[in-house]
Amino acid sequence: MSKEQTKITAYNIQGRESRNPNTNKRLSKVRALTQFLCRYDPQRSSWHYKQHAIALQETRGETAWEYIKEQVHMANPHANVFDCPNVDNPNKGGVSTVFFDPSIEVEKVLDDNTLSTTWLDIVPPLLKPQIQILFGDAIKGRILLVKFKWNNEWIYFLNTYAPCGSDKASQNARYYFFKFLNDNIDRYERFIHLGDHNNLPDPGT
To answer: What residues have CB less than 8 Å from 60, skipping those under 6 apart?
Structure first.
């Protein structure tokens, strides 16, 4: 694919659904977001994209993969959807990467469910117990790497959801999460890293 500009963004969706406060009806955040970011023009028989791709965090849900793909395709049946669920607790975490523009060639490279080690494995023994208390069932569903072709060059696109929290144990978890990324994810010549890095202190604490 050859384009002067490809627009990519990241968004922590904080769950796949919300409820209408007036009707209490469940609403699909994923479908609404897709409808907002891409629109089909029947007069010109063409699609228009505010963003060509998006990296989503906290997608959650035991059937997150099927649900997200289904909801995206209700608004854009040609989109390419890639998912990395948290297999230990599907109600926590999870990341997905969606390419709305089907003319962009894209392939999945890896996710943290396919790696032989996790970021918890590199935490020193003295620090590990506190981190396991906070994140023991939320280690996976945080790392998703795809690659897409732009101007005949492959660009690697990493989507991550870092451990959150401002306490010392959470800060340590975040440190070793990013150390794991640096040690285990190759830094390609053309590389984009987006996601929810959770690297700002919570003003409420």
So the answer is: 15, 16, 86, 90, 91, 92, 93, 94
Which residue in 52, 120, 104, 114 sits closest to 83, CA to CA?
114
Tens digit of pLDDT for each residue in 181-202? 999 998 888 999 999 999 765 5
**Comparing C-alpha atoms, which of 96, 124, 121 is closest to residue 183?**
121
Angstrom distance (rounded) from CA 5 to CA 22: 40
The packing angle between helices 64-75 and 29-37, to 10°, is: 40
Q: Which pTM was predicted?
A: 0.90
Number of Cβ within a 10 Å radius of residue 130: 16
* 87: nearest Cα among 45, 140, 143: 140
